[in-house]
Specification:
By secondary structure, the chain is of the alpha/beta class. Helix content is 34%, strand content 29%. Helix 3 runs antiparallel to helix 4 and helix 7 crosses helix 8. The longest helix is centred in the first third of the chain and has 17 residues. Bound molecules: S-adenosylmethionine. S-adenosylmethionine binds next to helix 6, helix 8, strand 4 and helix 10.
């Protein structure tokens, strides 16, 4: 692994973080509030408490997001902004199932999480990062994690691509989604580097490129802008949509395959795939709620597979714009949440009080004029309990409440 341009003071600081006294302090205070610690102590073994407190805050974030790194001795956690921007272990592992080959160029290395998991499927890996200090930390961490097929390049993606001679198997790019004021952005042209600017070079020099984007970015718009999209992967972790990945190559596909995946805590996953054209052509049947109610997972909702899901699982849709589904026979492999309907009632306090005397319920809205806070107030309901209320517009355009319980 090659690195260069070491800053002396920075290296001293990194070495101090790894001192046994500092590591012991970090582990002993791992569950404490980093801010309170920074008020209570001045330094630990000559290292300013601010640096130590930042390590503790980052470790707390890593506990669920990056369990393998959290368990590994000698890891130096990068600044919190990089910890926030990096992929989780679960989503990085998923990405590593999508690409493999001889050479991988990760053009926006960041915290190195994606680099680390993707590196397992490549002979030769290049980590590119414009932030000098970050590249130093990640170089150290990847050594701690026994990565031996990696070269670190402290430069911009643009400069690296400009210098790159010949062709490579795969580029990976996960642009920074913050502007100069550190505000969140998601449009491709607002992120850095700008993938759309780099696109001609990526297509010319790479066999294929995997691009990670925010779920906020409109899928059809991105497919149109990226031109040669072959596959789209919409990734959720425990029901929350975290990222959308676009795989591009020289040919692309006029109707890319959309793969939706929900990675669950228990290690299982829900996968549902369809083609854009199938969704456009799909016929859907609508009905009033029957015995069971289904809510597709966040990846399917993000991907817009509203009609194909109805045909594939033989469930009826409640309304063209209400993305809830129903059936008489239970569909046990539906990718999302499933409920048994207790009753369907009008949207008023009296009707709800009769069915929810405990005055406590979990509320979801779909195609409904009031938001959850307003509904809670109007229906006098607290959050929680075993009942799940869906406020929706039905096939006859009536505002209704489905009172349900989990199957
Ligand atoms: C979202 S983070 C990448 C996170 C990474 N995939 C991970 O899982 O740890 C984006 C990174 O790109 C870097 N970056 C932004 N513009 C860049 C550019 N033009 N060239 C190289 N790196 C850049 C940022 O410094 C930041 O560390």
């Amino acid at each position: 692994m090659k690195t260069n341009k070491y800053s002396f003071t920075f290296v001293i600081m990194l070495e101090k973080i790894l001192l046994p006294q500092v590591q012991q302090f970090i582990k002993a205070h791992e569950k404490e509030d980093p801010f309170s610690l920074s008020l209570k102590y001045k330094e630990v073994a000559g290292l300013p408490i601010k640096v130590v407190a930042e390590q503790i805050a980052a470790r707390q974030k890593a506990k669920n997001k990056l369990p393998e790194w959290h368990h590994t001795e000698g890891i130096i956690f990068p600044p919190l902004i990089s910890m926030e921007q990096c992929s989780s272990e679960a989503s990085a592992k998923y990405k590593s199932t999508l690409i493999s080959g001889r050479t991988l160029i990760d053009l926006t290395g960041g915290a190195g999480v994606d680099t680390y998991y993707l590196a397992k499927n490549f002979t030769e890996v290049h980590y590119i990062e414009q932030n000098h200090d970050l590249a130093q930390i990640i170089g150290h961490n990847l050594r701690m994690l026994n990565v031996d097929n990696l070269e670190i390049h402290e430069c911009t993606a643009e400069a690296f691509l400009e210098r790159l001679k010949g062709n490579v198997d795969n580029f990976y790019i996960d642009p920074a989604r913050r502007d100069n004021q550190q505000q969140k952005v998601f449009r491709l042209e607002d992120c850095t580097p700008d993938v759309l600017q780099l696109l001609p070079q990526l297509l010319e020099k790479g066999r294929q490129t995997l691009i990670k984007t925010s779920p906020m970015l409109d899928l059809p718009l991105a497919i149109n802008d990226l031109k040669k999209v072959k596959e789209v992967h919409v990734v959720s972790v425990d029901g929350e949509c975290k990222e959308v990945l676009y795989l591009i190559d020289h040919e692309g596909d006029p109707s890319p395959k959309i793969i939706t995946i929900n990675l669950k805590k228990n290690g299982t996953s829900e996968i549902f795939a369809f083609k854009m054209i199938e969704e456009a052509d799909a016929q859907v049947s609508y009905s009033q709620p029957k015995i069971f109610l289904y809510e597709p997972n966040a990846s399917i909702l993000k991907a817009g597979g509203f009609k194909v899901i109805s045909g594939k699982y033989r469930v009826d849709k409640l309304h063209q714009h209400t993305h809830l589904y129903t059936s008489s026979d239970y569909v046990d492999n539906f990718p999302g949440r499933s409920f048994k309907i207790i009753d369907i009632i009008p949207y008023n306090k009296k009707a709800v009080a009769r069915l929810v005397p405990e005055k406590k319920a979990n509320i979801t809205t779909r195609n409904f004029p009031d938001d959850v806070a307003v509904i809670r107030k109007k229906l006098n309901l607290k959050d929680g309990g075993n009942k799940y209320l869906f406020a929706y517009t039905d096939v006859d355009n009536q505002k209704k409440i489905a009172v349900t319980e989990k199957t």
